[in-house]
Design a protein that fits this description.
CATH class of the largest domain: Alpha Beta
Order of helices and strands: EEEHEHEHEHEEEEHHEHEEEEHHHEHEHE
CATH superfamily of the largest domain: Spore Coat Polysaccharide Biosynthesis Protein SpsA, Chain A
Helix content: 25-40%
Shape: elongated
Largest sheet: 7 strands, mixed
Number of domains: 2
Structural class: alpha/beta
Number of strands: 18
Distance between the termini: 38 Å
Radius of gyration: 26 Å
Strand order of the largest sheet: 5-4-1-6-10-7-11
Number of helices: 12
Strand content: 25-35%
């Protein structure tokens, strides 16, 4: 599926009346950026079209520049998506992915499997199974209870073969206009596949949803120490420092990463590195600590944890570490999927005091700041 042609439409044409705002909610701050920038980052591998309200076109252009293709939105979301689709002039065999600008919790790793699910009929939507009992009511009175085993909450992305979308637009005469493209495709006689997802792929819609933009903050501290072992290479902050001396340990003894792992686990309330990777387990013998960090972070990020920043202090009398600090930051930020500016690393001596000052080994402290989405 990697070679599939995929084009993305992220409608941002609404003003946010339901949200009670006098400007598009896409400008609200989220993860250190705006909501629209955070959502766009989920689709950085694809070409994106963003329909925007005419009154705020210049604001969107200043914010997004040439990172996306801006299109004037219509009077409804349906019209905005249609405008973008007509402008992009997609080939018939392209896949058109439509995603809400205010749905920033989407997992982009699921997109290609979802496109695969759309192959059979040319259409698929993300949807979460209903968990509440569903009532059908008229004039405030319940008429019947629906079987929720057949009920799904439609989400985005919604995915359609371009030729199918084009044909459906050509004959669509629904009134009022459909609330989503799936409804139009269904009316066209096509069965839309369900790509199951969780309710965590939620949308920022109402004022009370503001709490989702400000996830709880959690702080963790980590500390580690290792003695020198001249026969081993020195790994620190994920990179090899030429000339050593190395550090003694069950793994590669990367004291900076070990402290960082403990800080992350501490913030998440997940124990410590010794619990995760026991030093009597042969599978971790001489393992690179970058692999340990990758495993820990995969687990934490899958639970909604996001790293806001980390601060690491390495105590070492030898060797000189200043020339390698930037390489360490780049290595760690790549693993943690965060800008390198959010990873701070400092190296200091102990003025000749203690085991570090006596050149017997190294120590490291780390502090990590996490947020966890969807938790109060």
């Amino acid at each position: 599926m990697a070679d599939q042609k995929i084009k993305v439409i992220i409608p941002a044409g609404g003003i946010g009346f339901r949200f009670g705002s006098d400007q598009p909610k896409q400008f609200l701050p989220f993860r250190g950026k705006t909501l629209i920038e955070t959502t766009l980052a989920l689709f950085s591998d694809y070409e994106v079209w963003v329909p925007v309200p005419e009154a705020f076109e210049s604001d969107f252009r200043r914010l997004l520049g040439d990172r996306v293709n801006l299109v004037l939105g219509g009077s409804t979301r349906f019209d905005s998506v249609r405008n973008a689709f007509e402008v992009m002039n997609a080939d018939d065999d392209c896949w058109i992915v439509i995603h809400d600008a205010a749905r920033p919790f989407f997992d982009p790793a699921t997109l290609l499997p979802a496109v695969e699910a759309a192959q059979a009929t040319g259409a698929a939507i993300y949807a979460a199974p209903a968990t509440d009992t569903i009532k059908w009511a008229t004039d405030g009175l319940v008429e019947k209870t629906l079987d929720r085993s057949h009920i799904y909450h439609a989400q985005t992305p919604q995915i359609f073969r371009a030729s199918l979308l084009r044909d459906a637009y050509a004959v669509c005469q629904q009134s009022p206009t459909p609330t989503d493209e799936s409804a139009m495709i269904e009316a066209f006689g096509i069965r839309v596949a369900i790509f199951p997802c969780s309710h965590s792929n939620r949308k920022i819609t109402q004022p009370e949803d503001m709490s989702l933009l400000h996830a709880p903050i959690r702080i963790g501290h980590g500390y580690d120490v290792h003695r020198f072992e001249a026969s081993r290479p020195l790994f620190l902050g994920g990179i090899e420092i030429p000339g050593g001396p190395g550090l003694l340990g069950h793994s590669d003894a990367d004291v900076a990463i070990h402290a960082l792992i403990d800080a992350l686990l501490g913030a998440a309330g997940k124990g410590d590195i010794g619990h995760w990777f026991p030093d009597n387990d042969d599978q971790f013998k001489d393992i690179r600590s970058t692999q340990l960090l990758e495993k820990v972070w995969a687990d934490l990020s899958s639970q909604g944890f996001r790293l806001m920043n980390a601060d690491i202090t390495i105590q070492a009398q030898i060797p000189k570490l200043a020339p390698y600090i930037e390489q360490m930051r780049l290595c760690l930020s790549a693993i943690l999927a965060i800008d390198s500016q959010a990873i701070n690393i400092k190296a200091t001596t102990t003025e000749g005091l203690g085991f570090v000052g006596e050149k017997q080994g190294m120590a490291s402290h780390a502090v990590a700041l996490l947020s966890q989405e969807g938790r109060g």
